[in-house]
Amino acid sequence: MKMREETRYYREYTDDFVESRQQDETLPEDFVWLHENIFYRAAAAVLYGIAVIFSFFYSYFGLHIRVVGREKLKRCKGQGIFLYGNHTQPMGDAFAPAMYIFPKRLYTVAGAANLGIPVLGKVLPMLGALIVPQSVAQMRSFLNAMKYHLEHGRCIIVYPEAHVWPYCGFVRPFPETSFRYPVQFGAPAYCMTTTYQKWRRGQKPRITTYIDGPFYPDQEMRKKEAQRKLHDEIAQCMRERSKASTYEYIRYVRKSEE
């Protein structure tokens, strides 16, 4: 595997390599996940349309992404789905999936720190960011919004690794926590695995994204068991797909304890 000179060292898989200016952003108690206002919804629809157009040009002409397995999404046409992915592109992970799942509307589970991104952060909820609640009281509104989007045939993306590691070629271990959602709502899940290959036209690698699924939660199992099973199936699939990464644009090395 060819390597670039840049090497990044980490101690834990939860280390941050990309931080916003307001990393400790907090949500107000009255934060709204599902807006009823017709003008807000109209503005959100316009902004999302612009984002989809941007996504097309940025994905194919900026990042040079090749998508393999997109046709598998047709198996759940008209259904609300979850899509799990490895988190390796600060901007690409926010915009590129809009092209993968089109014409489904896309919503992305994101941390409150994203609201601190200059300019863009304030409109992220209008573009489809489902901000993770920070209190038990907020959880009901968050889950109600998630249920609404699934009932309307939309796609909810989750990055279970949580932290962005740019151009990371391997899939980091991630917890089972977020896999409770497909189990809770009885919704199918897919995974998308972003991989990197040497590209003859420049130093930055070519990106190939693999889409696999659907994976269905086992309704015969207890919720915790079904959650674990779904996690294991998707994690295994993503690890296998990540073997297609053949170029380390950035090398990640675990730092030994001193």
General description of the model:
- By secondary structure, the protein is an alpha/beta fold.
- Helix content is 32%, strand content 20%.
- A 7-stranded mixed sheet has the order 3-9-8-4-7-5-6. A two-stranded parallel ribbon has the order 1-10. It has a two-stranded parallel sheet with strand order 2-11.
- The relative contact order is 0.21.
- The mean pLDDT is 91.
**How is the largest sheet built, in terms of strand order?**
3-9-8-4-7-5-6
Total strand count, please? Answer: 11
Report the β-strand fraction as a percent range. Answer: 15-25%
Low-confidence stretches: none
Please, how many helices? 7
Alpha carbon gyration radius:
18 Å
Estimate the global geometry from the Cα principal axes.
Answer: globular
**Topology pattern, helix = H, strand = E:** EEHEEHHEHEHEHEEHEE
Estimate the mean pLDDT confidence: 91
Structural class: alpha/beta
Q: How is the biggest beta sheet arranged?
A: 7 strands, mixed
Alpha-carbon distance between the two ends: 29 Å
Estimated helix fraction:
25-40%
Describe the structure using short key phrases:
alpha/beta; two-stranded parallel sheet
